[in-house]
Amino acid sequence: MVIAQTNPPNLASDATKTSFTPDEYRAMEETAEERHEYCNGEIIAMPGGSEVHSAIACNLLIHLGFLLRDTDFRLYNSDLRVWIPEYNCGTYTDLMVVNGEPEFHGSRTDEILNPLLVNICWSVKLNHILNNITISIARRAIAGNGKCTIGLKGRSSCTA
Asked: Model pTM?
């Protein structure tokens, strides 16, 4: 099932098509006016944000940017997708943190495979895999000996 108001651009005009390849999804996203998530063949229109959501994302970005200065951690905004190969899913995060160099998906420069931390409002469709993705990201962070915590009242620490 494709959740969108119109046929996604650059794809077959057959309105009955219900499954797309990752390459079809990526081709569509390159010219789409709105963003979409991809989950195992389905393309899901992402809902619009709100003023509150935008303010929270900006505040988090600013706070983490301050905390991560002079470290090997890199902070990215929503311009890049995180691709989760084990679930054949891709989505845009409000922000993500990578330790060292980003690992891109093949020759793509718009999909990151190695985030240590992501902040995202997951769609209902992707919600069912959120726990497994969180565990996977946590395992990568532990394996890389990287740790970043944000505590209450601004008490935070990041180590590489």
From this structure: 0.66
